[in-house]
Amino acid sequence: MATDTIISLKNDPAMRRHFEELDEHGYTILEDVLTGRQIDEAIREIAVTYREERAAEHEPGTLRTHNLSARAEVFREMLQIPPVMACLAYLLGDDYILCDSGARSPLPGMKAQGLHRDGDDFMPNPPYKVHAVVPTFAQSLFALSEFTAESGATRFVPGSHNKDLDSTKIPPDDERRFICKPGACLVYDGRLLHAGAPNTTGEIRYAVLNFHCRARMKPFCDHTRSIPRDIVEAASPTLRRLWGFECQSAWEESPRNYRIIEVTGAKPRFEYRGLAAINEQEDPEKA
Ligand SMILES: O=C(O)CCC(=O)C(=O)O
Fold first, then answer.
1. Ligand 1 atom at shortest distance from the alpha carbon of 153
2. How do residues 194-213 score in pLDDT, each as one tens digit?
3. What integer pLDDT is reported at residue 287 of this predicted model?
4. Domain boundary assignment for the chain
5. Distance CA 127, CA 247 (A)
């Protein structure tokens, strides 16, 4: 996805409402961001992963798969949907990266999760430069099934993203639900209090949770080692950035020999060789 598209969306008046909602309420909803083909493919591919070993081990009562973007192309498409990316860039900066791409399905009979925040300790908004500092994590949660009060539509507390609240003392009336059709996306500030809800239907609820963070944070999944190299090389520059190849921690293999995982566009987050590396890029003959 061209950075230009994201920049133009950031200035698009139609997106302003979403950015204002993210600031004021800590979440926004984008309807119809997935096509019918993407919904069907994503459900089919997730169902395949749920037959792998240990799919129920992370959270009893649910099936979960992580590292989805190493699996099928449809999951890589879901990371590059321009309006969703514009919301995430608004929250986390243009260089944000993927923390973890997962599927979560509460099985029939699954109970409610407790209200919680994602990814980091709570930090209120600072008095200035809010978007340079917080949030550190943000979620884009895609509904693949119909999200209803019965099927386990996500619960959340509007405005809780910048308030130091006791998650065990939230009056039920302060909660809202992500009731939506398949294909909608709930983007939220990681500080927003939210939770999975009970599934009282006889059906599995399908959703993809694409969790992101600022480039300076440590992602849950080290995508630089989790995505097969042929997929990395066939991917767009945006995906390689999202997977963290442009903000790698270098290792010193031998004295003054600093290494990173070499793929197209790879960059270290700190250039130990300083000017020598810049000169070498400008004029490889000098190397
Ligand atoms: O699946 C959902 O509706 C939300 C799940 C969630 O918040 C979590 O697993 O942290």
1. 3
2. 999 999 999 999 999 999 99
3. 55
4. 3-224, 251-286
5. 28
Tokens describing residue 94: 């243009």
pTM reported for the whole predicted model? 0.95
d(CA 184, CA 32): 5
Best residue for ligand 1 mutational test, from 141, 178, 220 (most atoms within 8 Å of Cβ): 141
**Centre of ligand 1 from the C-alpha of residue 143, in Å:** 12
Cα distance between residue 3 and residue 182, in whole Å: 27
d(CA 166, ligand 1 centre) in Å: 19
Closest-CA residue, ligand 1 atom 7, reads 195
Residues in a beta bridge with 229: none
The answer to whether 206 and 144 are in contact (CB under 8 A) is yes
Across the beta sheet with 176-177, the strand order is 176-177, 155-156, 194-195
What stretches of 114-273 adopt beta strand conformation (E)?
Answer: 137-143, 155-156, 176-177, 185-189, 194-195, 207-213, 251-254, 257-259
Rounded CA Rg of the chain: 20
Cα 139 to Cα 120: distance, rounded to the nearest angstrom? 13
Ligand 1 pocket at CB < 6 A:
104, 113, 118, 154, 194-196, 207
Task: Please answer whether residues 189 and 91 qualify as being in contact, where contact means their C-beta atoms are separated by less than 8 angstroms.
Answer: yes
At residue 286, the pLDDT reads 61
Atom of ligand 1 nearest to the CA of 118: 10
| CATH fit for domain 3-224, picks 3.40.50.720, 2.40.320.10, 2.60.120.620, 3.40.50.1370 | 2.60.120.620
Contact 102, 66 (CB under 8 A): yes
Report pLDDT digits (tens) over 159-175.
Answer: 999 999 999 999 999 99
Consecutive H or E run containing 201:
none
| Confidence tier at 4 by pLDDT (50, 70, 90) | confident
Q: Which pLDDT value is given to residue 2? A: 61
